[in-house]
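Archive transcription. Copying these from loose printouts into the bound notebook so they stop getting lost. Printout 1 of 2:
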Amino acid sequence: MTVTLDDIRAAQMTIAGAVMRTPFLPAPKLSALTGADIRVKYENMQVTNAFKERGAVVKLTSLAPAERARGVIAMSAGNHAQAVAYHAARLRIPATIVMPETTPFVKVAATRGYGARVVLVGETLSEAQAEAETIAARESLTFVHPYDDEDVIRGQGTVAIEMLEDEPDLDTIVVPVGGGGLISGVATAAKALQPRIEVIGVETVHYPSMWSALRGETPKCGGNTLAEGIAVKNVGKLTLEIVRRLVDDIVLVKEAEIERAVNAYLTLQKAMAEGAGAAGLAALLAAPARFRGRKVGLILAGGNIDARILASIMVRELAREERIVAVRITIPDRPGVLGVITTTIGTLGGNILEVSHHRLFLKVPAKGASVDVTLETRDAAHANEIIAGLEAKGFDVARLGEPSEELR
């Protein structure tokens, strides 16, 4: 083993005073939602709103004076970038960060705001890493890897020490997995302190890199994901070895489950979670029977999410719960028909949010029209009641916007 519990304890002393010891609190509403006894480690409360500060501080403070003077470089989709930028500025170390061009603007702006030079290159972390390595060689900068580094791993492992100090009798810790730095540190500390504890990793189905590596398979990675922070094609050599020895399982979650988890953190816990940060909860939502009745520690690993995306997720969840429903109604094109529709919906307790009237659709008779109505309902049963009421008035009603299987 390249990293030990003693290494992580030393890292805990290194970060003291520079990184917040975040709360680890019971989450009764999430427990009721999933059937597990959940506690949440709120790493979104760090200055840069993610756990990455732990490893960054340990790595940066380990540098020799000459290395500090020349500066550091890192590649990241956002949270590692901000952590390195923030603490490098605090320690007066020049920092360059290479980020994929697809990185959310909120993360790019924050990284620049901490004083780093930001270089945007490529679509993926792999392309960003290649550019970072080129710049590092050309300018003699120290590369601060986001996960495949012993100092970074032992810094991330301090999360588990804190969790088990607060709750020694945890049954399971569920950890988001990108390149594997967090889960490597967590598993090293947790298994040393509590050998019987179960450590479960979570990846998105679009980027099953660690899941595939453990099976000796080439991962099939690609596609848009809300969890861009763990959208990693290549896991680390150090992290893969640690995960292979210490992690009990890696599970894959769909986009809909990640969206539900982000929404649950916001609406039930009043906590901001980015997609990657909410991946642990997504695993419990995807397979509640697996965790039911167990005392589970979740790491809310990061809260850097674009406000527009977050607003979209909230509306999409209302649509999944059929509390917002869109229907297309085919009608005869004559006065008073729209009044019948709105009166019917109102009488049945629906609230109309939007109406769009169409006459040029070729599927509609020349003497007809169609009306798209978006309405607010109490739940799925109430939505069905309203649709049945419209059909009873003789209208042809079709639902709009049915999600694909992956996004259900």
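Printout 2 of 2:
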Amino acid sequence: MLKKILSISGKPGLFRLVSRGKNMIIVESLLTGTRQPAYSNEKIVSLGDIAIFKEDGEEPLRNVLIAIKAKENGQPVALSSKASNDELKKFLGEVLPDFDRVRVYPSDIKKLISWYNMLLEKGVDFETEEETSGEEVALSETQVKEAPVAKPVQAKVKAAKPANVKVSTIRKTSKDK
């Protein structure tokens, strides 16, 4: 379910993917329930693609959200947005003990907590594993090697005359002979 929940840079809250268009997608705000377009020039990230830095790799956001839910017994996180940086790092240290304390900023932890509370409030199920649809199936190596290669198209270009340019001719006079 997290693949269809989006974060859009510059817009508050989270959004659910409703429909796809040619150069945009239609999203529904989890905060207000209103639908609006999101264009391809905006930074749009699926929560299913986000991970938290660890000392030896990354932990998918889904696993971190499940760990927070287990720690909080299915209740919202009680930390306020005005909690100190030490309190935020202590909280995430209890949930994910080996998170990278250098690359994970307090603002990231605040965003994580607000996302968790919002997803919990709206009843979004982030615990079930998502199945890949036909669009998201990766090609095997043999399919990639055997895929037809498009031939380059040779375009015929006609040389254009510059507009409004007078061509003067040189006449030979009787003196030049």
